[in-house]
Design brief:
This protein is mainly α and 125 residues long. Helix content is 59%, strand content 0%. It is elongated.
Amino acid sequence: MAALSDQEPPELPSKGSQAPRDTNAGRRHLTAARTSAANASTSSDRSEVRTKALQSYSRNPLYVAVLAILAGWAMGFRSWPLCGYAALVAVAFHRRIVSYEEPVLKAAHTRQWADYAANVPRWLL
């Protein structure tokens, strides 16, 4: 066995050439993300409508939070363009909720959804 000092150092890329790339890095990242997403969707019970915590105040607390952040930025920066952006995002959220999310939930959880929708506002008011 040769001593460590007898070994030649690895060849470094010459100036202007690129180092070898790990071509599987992106694939590993996507696989990890898919596995994580699959575990997240199966880790909790999805057979019931969630009605506790923030969902007891609004049927869409995540959307409300995003709109609150955008409105806060618009006010903080005193920016009319940000106000317009927040309004466009609010309209986009509302259209998605009404046209896709609520019909899917209603079809999947008919009785639970009817009770929940009757007692909890879509937004905050």
